[in-house]
Write a structure and sequence with these properties.
about 425 residues; 14 helices; binds guanosine-5'-diphosphate; binds 6-O-phosphoryl inosine monophosphate; binds magnesium ion
Length: about 425
């Protein structure tokens, strides 16, 4: 049975966590797989009075009996995942019985966080990316560089102390010019060894070969759900480089990060807000610098789950989402935060860009071009009604349905799900396959 996938179509925080939780609960999903990114992700799930914030652990953990797999494409900070595990266990969730972590995942070490701080300061290397400072870029850089990387499996290899000492020697040399960004403890090989040895002991019951596990699962026809982190526009290869994250966060990353062959990648749901947000640096054509932008931020509570930073807010960008829908091979759109735009007197959708006087529907490959585009908007009258209690498409106000139809037409994909509030229950399922 081919797997179902959930990926973000914008710059992250589209409410993927809500959707994965919802589908895990509804679709007889047996295994949820997280396949890229790391603790830069912050996925919020609201179930009744309970709110959960997840960074590494797939949102399937909140559904009884669902197995959750963290696949090789993820970079993991062991201290952070242990905090997450402890928090969930305290709330009565059987994490050890429901979580399998690949021994191939690459580990984030204190020196990665120091490197992230140094590069992100932007003084040496140009405009700051505004990363989450979770060591993501430096850890992936070491992975691709190979010689200074340490994976989960290495924690159990018997020569961890020696390995850490070697890498620390290397890092001392490469970070020599950046002492103002590095704390002595971040290069203290002995203390780091002791810390990571302790993490290793605690994580060991959950560590294994997830590639073999998932290949066996597909052989026996088990029902998989893939959970993307970040958003397609933050994809290292296809996003707004260099203002991206360091993994393939669009649909192209699913097979590579999980080890599951593409023939098992089935229906892909793309998640987008009814407007756009972005955290960190980089161009954002439909960004609003006025009161409307502030209103959206307040209504949508647009502050980062991981860093608490205010999110930049703007109108729905149909050019960008059409691009990411095509890139991700998206079957159905999940349009989130409809309750938020339902409070606005007027709503705009960007339907095309103008660049050097020419109208285009193409999303530029170069950030300097993206910085120069002028969004062309279509304006729709607002419907100014509370939709948070609506559960079917038919009950939505006409204006809201017109907005969804127009979005679907512009991006070239049917609307499968509409979200009208943070709670799992505040959802309209329009796709028959999901009922
Ligand atoms: P993710 O990283 O893609 O999982 O998204 P985040 O969890 O970082 O951000 C989405 C935020 O929106 C969370 O706080 C959710 O609880 C909230 N949310 C999800 N769907 C809706 C919705 O339809 N309306 C409103 N108002 N909030 C929502
Ligand atoms: P979820 O999974 C929104 C952004 C950062 C920064 C850029 C690079 O919750 O949607 P990094 O720390 O990855 O090197 O930062 O990417 N970013 C996110 N923005 N949601 C996320 O994850 C993000 N993860 C990274 O703000 O601009
Ligand atoms: Mg998030």
């Amino acid at each position: 049975m081919p797997g179902t996938c959930v990926i973000g179509l914008q710059w992250g925080d589209e409410a993927k966590g809500k959707l994965v939780d919802l589908l895990a609960d509804r679709k007889n999903v047996e295994i949820v797989v997280r396949y890229q990114g790391g603790a830069n992700a912050g996925h919020t799930v609201v179930i009744g009075d309970d709110t959960y914030k997840l960074h590494h652990i797939p949102s399937g953990i909140l559904t009884d009996g669902v197995m959750n797999v963290i696949a090789p494409g993820v970079v993991m900070h062991p201290g952070t995942i242990l905090e997450e595990i402890d928090g969930l266990v305290q709330r009565g969730i059987d994490v050890p019985g429901q979580l399998l972590i690949s021994d191939r995942v690459h580990l984030v070490f204190p020196w990665h966080i120091a490197e992230d701080r140094a590069v992100n300061a932007g003084e040496v290397i140009g405009e700051s990316i505004g990363t989450t400072l979770r060591g993501i870029g430096p850890c992936y850089r070491d992975k691709y560089g190979r010689m200074t990387a340490i994976r989960m499996g290495d924690l159990y290899s018997g020569n961890l102390a020696e390995r850490i000492e070697q890498v620390v020697q290397w890092k001392r040399k490469t970070l020599a010019g950046f002492s103002e960004f590095v704390e002595e403890s971040e290069l203290d090989a002995e203390a780091i060894f002791a810390e990571y040895q302790d993490y290793a002991k605690r994580l060991e019951p959950m560590v294994g070969d997830t590639t073999e596990y998932l290949l066996n699962a597909t052989d026996s026809g088990r029902n998989l759900l893939f959970e993307g982190a970040q958003g397609s526009l933050l994809d290292i290869d296809h996003g707004t480089f260099p203002f991206v994250t360091s993994s393939n966060s669009s649909g192209v990353g699913i097979s590579g990060g999980s080890g599951v062959p593409a023939k098992w990648i089935g229906r892909v749901y793309g998640v987008a807000k009814a407007y756009t947000t972005r955290v960190g640096g980089g161009p954002f054509p439909t960004e609003l610098h006025d009161e409307v932008g502030k209103t959206i931020r307040n209504l949508g509570n647009e502050y980062g789950t991981t860093t608490g930073r205010p999110r930049r807010c703007g109108w729905f960008d149909g050019v960008a989402v059409r691009y990411t829908v095509r890139l991700g091979g998206i079957h159905g759109l999940a349009v989130m935060m409809m309750d938020v735009i339902s409070q606005l007197p007027e709503i705009k959708i960007c339907v095309a860009y103008e660049i050097d006087g020419e109208r285009t529907g193409c999303f530029p490959s170069q950030v300097d071009d993206l910085r120069r585009v002028q969004p062309i908007y279509e304006t729709l009258p607002g419907w100014e009604q509370d939709v948070s209690g609506v559960r079917t498409m038919e009950e939505l106000p006409d204006g809201a349905r017109r907005f969804l139809d127009r979005v679907s037409e512009i991006v070239g994909c049917p609307v499968a799900i509409v979200s009208v509030g943070p709670d799992r229950a505040q959802t309209i399922i329009a796709d028959d396959l999901l009922r």
